[in-house]
User: Fold this.
Amino acid sequence: MGNIVTLLFNGISEGCLIFLMASSLSVVLGLMGVVNFAHGTLFLWGGYVYAWIYNWTGNWPLSILAAVTVGFGLGILFEKIFISRVYGNMSAQIMVTLGLQIVFTELCRVFWGAQQITVARPSFLSGVSNFAGITIVHYRLFLIVVGVVVTVGGQLVLTKTRVGMIIRAGVQNSEMVDSLGINIKRYFTIVFAIAAALAGLGGALYSPLNGTLNSNMGAANQLLAFIVVVIGGMGSFIGSALGSLFLGIMVAVIGWVLPDISLVAPVLMMALVLIFKPKGLFGLAVRK
Amino acid sequence: MGEILLRTEDISIQFGALKAVNKVSISIEENKFTTILGPNGAGKTTFFNLLSGLYKPTEGKVFFRDKDITGQTPQERIKEGIGRSFQLTNVFPKLTVRENVRLAAQSAANVGFRLFKSYKSYAEVNARSDELLEQVLLHDKAPLRASELTHGEQRKLELAMVLALEPEVLLLDEPTAGMSVEEVPVMIDLLRQIKEKGTTIVLIEHKMNMVKALSDKLIIMVNGEFLCEGDPEEVSRNPEVMEAYLGGGVVNVTA
Assistant:
């Protein structure tokens, strides 16, 4: 019993981490129709900036802030200089974002080396509690809190604010928002930058959980985020929250029961969803 | 004759070998209700697209209040005061009815680029949205998602959205297309009210009872060309119209 609860707990916390990447990937896809293969690179940069500042200063809030800020800045740079030129052209988007992924991943290796680096958890978030046979890793509990805050906050912004309303309308039909005299392109930049900041936060929170960081982790986590986007329904914020939880728990359970297939299970899951439920498990995909 | 609001000068557009609109010069008078009539394929919707800026003409010019707007984008023309509805319904299905109108109203109110401020805080925009919903008789449906409305209600919602942009001239492409028989008279009443409030309306329509009830002036197009214009009475007596539009039959416009 205790094992099962611990497993669920770990799965949920992994899900919260994936969610930071997947939700932003999904909204960018829904609003701008951009398949962003550079998303994992933003995650990676968040991780490295965090590790670099934290190992240097030991100041945790500063390190997190730095990672988020760098993600946000790179997001503006990517959108303004590269992605804004290829709206509506899917193959060009794939080439451009893949190119960005390669270049900026290599830059990580240039700045921080190709070797794995060690990242510690801040002391106030490290530690483990045992409670009625359930093992609770404090850092994982913290990840769940962050996941809940981002989900609730994101949902409030999307449903209650003016910019949220424009984004929801834009996800449904961006040309029509344009035809109402609202310059939707201006919102594209800001949404892309916020999405990049979330990816950066994801990277910053991931590296201490993992304990180490290397330059391949961006691509690996990006794949999980893409799988969540498919499972949860493309373009749906809530769908990506549900999809992340589902995937996190599934991976944790399979890793326990059938560790041999734990690596292929998510991809297999995505293939099945694409075949049988192309609008996502919860039917939340946004029709474009 | 009233002031000319919208005017075209020898406007043409060519798609490949097809000249969809050929040297059409017309004038839309302020505060008048003008209807464009013509058989299918006469180029009416294409002509509308030239007026709203969706298409750029291959030759000729468009003027709004004597200003040449030929090079302007649709967005720029909205700001000038040209609003249009589409032949196919265009609403945001997953937004509520109120949100749909509010989106248009806040664009017109030009509330600026203030991020994350709760949209409920814009009292004027809210009041204007509610007023518009009342005008198109959808106020009791405001909290519903637009996808839950009937087709006719969606067209009314779309009309409210175009009105929210406060256009001086309203281009309406078959606003009753796909509406049920009971819904058509409501739309006629609605358009009459809009006209009485001082909005100039240009309509593309097939339903003769509607054309007759509303129009001050008819413009007849055939095969992408201007055929003739005049008040409904005049046009119905024009032998060319009888010939071209109804293949020699009687045009039953005034009867």
Observations:
- The first strand of chain B starts at residue 4 and ends at 15.
